[in-house]
Amino acid sequence: MNQENEQDTMRDEYDFSGGVRGKHYREYQQGTNLVLLEPTVAKMFRDSETVNAALKKLAEIAPEYVSNL
C-alpha cells in the first residue's frame, strides 16, 4: 500500500515518547514461539513463568510427548 493512500489512524491518546527503538530486538532474533492458549487454560496459567514450569514438569514425567529437535 502506498503511504499517500494510507489513512492516519493514530489516536491523540497514543504516546510513544518514552518508547525505545529495538528494545526487544536481540530476544526476537533468537527466535520466538507464540502459542495461543484456550481461555480455560489461560485462566489456570496466567503468565509465561507458570506455563514454562508446568511444561518442564510434563517433559520430566512424560518425555515421550516432547520432541527433541
What does this structure look like?
- By secondary structure, this protein is mainly α.
- 36% of the residues lie in helices and 0% in strands.
- The chain has helices spanning 25-29, 39-44, 48-61.
- The two termini are 39 Å apart.
- The model has no long low-confidence stretch (mean pLDDT 85).
Sum this structure up briefly.
The protein is mainly alpha-helical and 69 residues long.
Report helical residue fraction.
25-40%
For the record, give the distance between the C-alpha atoms at the N and C termini, rounded to a whole number: 39 Å
Share of residues in strands? under 5%
Unreliable parts: none
The profile of the biggest β sheet is: none
Count of alpha and pi helical runs: 3
Rg over alpha carbons: 19 Å
- Specify the overall morphology: elongated
Query: Could you spell the SSE succession in H and E letters?
Result: HHH
Instruction: Report mean pLDDT, rounded to a whole number.
Output: 85
- Alpha-beta content class: mainly alpha
Number of strands: 0
Topology:
Layout: H1 25-29, H2 39-44, H3 48-61
Keywords for this structure?
mainly alpha; 69 residues; elongated
